[in-house]
Amino acid sequence: MNDEQQVIVWTPDVPGHEAFTDAKAAVKRLQELYDTAVSFLSKSFQDALEFGQPEARIRAYYPEIRLITTTHAKMDSRLSFGHVAEPGTYATTVTRPDLFGAYLEQQIQLLLNSHGVPVIIGASETVMPVHFAAANDPKLTVPQDGSMDFNLRDNFDVPDLSTTHDAIVNGEGFVYPDGARPLAPFTAQRVDYSLARLSHYTATAPEHFQNHVLFTNYQFYVEEFENFARQMLADPDSGYTIFVSTGNVEITESDAEIPVPGKMPQMPTYHLKRANGGGVTLVNIGVGPSNAKTATDHIAVLRPHAWLMVGHCAGLRNSQRLGDFVLAHAYLREDHVLDDDLPVWVPIPALAEIQIALETAVADVTKLEGYELKRIMRTGTVATIDNRNWELRDQSGPVQRLSQSRAVALDMESATIAANGFRFRVPYGTLLCVSDKPLHGELKLPGMASEFYKTQVAAHLMIGIRAMERLREMPLERIHSRKLRSFEETAFL
């Protein structure tokens, strides 16, 4: 093909950009645009599989939300979201309006209230990769490159790393090609990428994730979570309606059988569902900061209301006992996995709402209050490292740093989860349970560990759940603290 030949491009017929002053109607139009694009790409790709290479390039575009304002908003200064900082043009590409419908409607309504101008809905200039369109059809799979009779890229758009990034949340000054500034923290392709990764790593669909996410690093918590879920399903007044296990197995009866999967995913995930996403999701991320970053990188696109780490740690003080709790109020970051995204000199503050919820939950479950709580709980700095066997090297350096930081506990996930919560503007917190004391001769040996698990795992998990239930009752604007927001922020949470 020479330069004078023009590439033929087939695209679906969609409505032009239209202004909306009704949030429900705006989301409905987003859904129509998205469905049209997905159907067009999926049908065209299916035809290509059956009949051979198309005669043209097949292309569809993500829908977008656009806001144009020429005046400064009279915003509620108590809110950290729901408005743009100054006059200008703002936009965000959108995917899966079926999954994000309530979120989109809420955020659009806040814009309408804050600025008194309509939002504009239409097709964006960002192409939709055929892989992400096909993900909506379980019967349709995009073969790997080279296995088809024609080169996929010649006719269909594929995922593009230039639009799959964290430039917005990392504060790198991202703007869309036409100069519009971002309305939301993630582009549509970034969201689609994470939705696909979530299904792969957790073996559960993104639709099942609840607004309150617990992370743990031991299977024992999973077993207790299932026990709790069955108790809740047996109680018609609990408000919990469905328990979802690995492989999207759903049960609604307390005594229903859950088949054991033939192969466990990297991060087994379980969901105790409640109306409007008000339930609890538990993710067993395993051990290490890499897993912690991977999980939170992808769960963040779902815009959860809060996430908490409830796992095991090494106690660093002689006065601690196995089974004591540690409520993190600061983090020493030696995990290294986020250094390029969030420099270690950035402080990760404790969030008052989360801290109070966790401390109150400890008191509720243990029946200890006030000064008596100090018998079983320390509040202090948690250090996170990336070397599980740090004790086997020269200890003088690490121990000195731990002492200088006033750290009371050491693990491999908490600071990563907190730092990514800070980076993604997701409220975060940490309550750990001391399972060994390596500096004082109490190592995590089998006999000691089994006794510890019997006595503390159930109580620890219950504390995490109770804290989430307390946060669930708070208005969203209280949980999403302004301390998580930078100078120029996206209007959407």
Describe this structure in words.
- The radius of gyration is 24 Å and the shape is globular.
- The longest helix has 29 residues.
- The two termini are 47 Å apart.
- Helices cover 33% and strands 20% of the residues.
- The strands form three sheets. A five-stranded mixed sheet has the order 2-6-4-5-7.
- With 493 residues, the chain is of the alpha/beta class.
- Helix 6 packs parallel to helix 9.
- The chain is built from eleven helices and 18 strands.
- Strand 9 and strand 10 form a beta hairpin.
- The protein has two domains: 188 residues, amp nucleosidase, domain 1 (2-Layer Sandwich); 280 residues, 3-Layer(aba) Sandwich (Rossmann fold).
Chart the SSEs and their pairings.
Elements: E1 9-10, E2 18-20, H1 23-51, E3 57-58, E4 61-69, E5 88-93, H2 97-115, E6 119-127, H3 130-134, E7 181-182, H4 188-202, E8 212-216, H5 219-234, E9 240-245, E10 249-251, E11 269-274, E12 280-284, H6 289-299, E13 306-309, E14 312-315, E15 325-334, H7 352-366, E16 377-385, H8 396-404, E17 407-411, H9 414-424, E18 428-436, H10 446-472, H11 476-479
Parallel strand pairs: 1-3, 5-7, 8-12, 8-13, 13-18, 14-18, 15-16, 16-17
Antiparallel strand pairs: 2-6, 4-5, 4-6, 9-10, 9-11, 11-12, 14-17, 15-18
Number of helices: 11
What amount of the residues lies in strands? 15-25%
**Within the largest sheet, what's the order of strands?**
2-6-4-5-7
- Average pLDDT over all residues: 90
